[in-house]
Design a protein that fits this description.
The strands form two sheets. Strands 1, 3, 8, 9, 10, 11, 13 and 15 form an eight-stranded antiparallel beta sheet that branches. Strands 7-6-5-4-12-2-14 form a seven-stranded antiparallel beta sheet, with no helix packed on it. The protein has one domain: Jelly Rolls. It contains one helix and 15 strands. With 202 residues, the protein is mainly beta. The radius of gyration is 15 Å and the shape is globular.
């Protein structure tokens, strides 16, 4: 249980990462991924990387620059332009629905205009899920200059699209539905220079 804890990625650039283990029984037709990050990086960095053997960017939350997030599903992406961070924690949730191809993006509890992405696609279930690096091959192929440096917390993955109420609940750290990956019961393995610490402030 990592409640009120964070992963601190100490180095920049870094070869460190955290492997997450999810119980995925079948491919995903819908999902939501949420996390909270704190960094002063201005270079590109990966926040959440989910790769299958067929597709290295099966699900990817990537920040190419301070005022932009990219959300990938099945190797294709949509871009969400955001105000440049005030050097504070940023909470993001991204959800996707195969039937409509609708991609939702929420920043700090507020929704951005929805976009279309990979309608009819299915996300594979046999996945390598990493924090802190962007995979260019299954479980590897890292570019150090896409690595994350800073603090990450409150990482979740659901096999459904969350309702607006639940998106706001995730931002406020309230009670959430059972998840494939849940911060309060996370199965993970640290690779390299990552330290688990208490959160400095709420």
């Amino acid at each position: 249980d990592l409640y009120r804890k964070v992963f601190v990625f100490r180095k920049d650039p870094s070869d460190a990462y955290v492997v997450l283990r999810a119980r995925l029984e079948q491919p995903l037709h819908n999902f939501t991924v949420c996390l909270r990050s704190y960094t002063d990086l201005s270079r590109p960095h990966s926040l959440f990387s989910y790769a299958t053997k067929a597709q290295d960017n099966e699900i990817l939350l990537f920040k190419p620059k301070p005022e932009e997030y990219r959300f990938y599903v099945g190797g294709k992406f949509v871009t969400f332009r955001v105000p440049e961070g005030r050097r504070d924690w940023e909470h993001v949730c991204a959800s996707w629905e195969s039937a409509t191809g609708i991609a939702e993006f929420w920043l700090n509890g507020k929704p951005w205009p929805r976009k279309g992405l990979q309608r009819g696609y299915t996300v594979g279930a046999t996945a390598a899920i990493l924090l802190g690096q962007e995979q260019d091959s299954f479980g590897g192929g890292f570019d150090l200059y896409n690595s994350f440096s800073g603090e990450l917390t409150d990482v979740y993955l659901w096999d459904t699209g969350l309702s607006p109420d639940k998106m706001r609940a995730a931002f406020l750290s309230l009670r959430l539905p059972p998840a494939l990956l849940a911060w309060k019961s996370l199965s993970y393995e640290v690779k390299g220079d990552v330290v688990v610490k208490s959160r400095l402030r709420e």
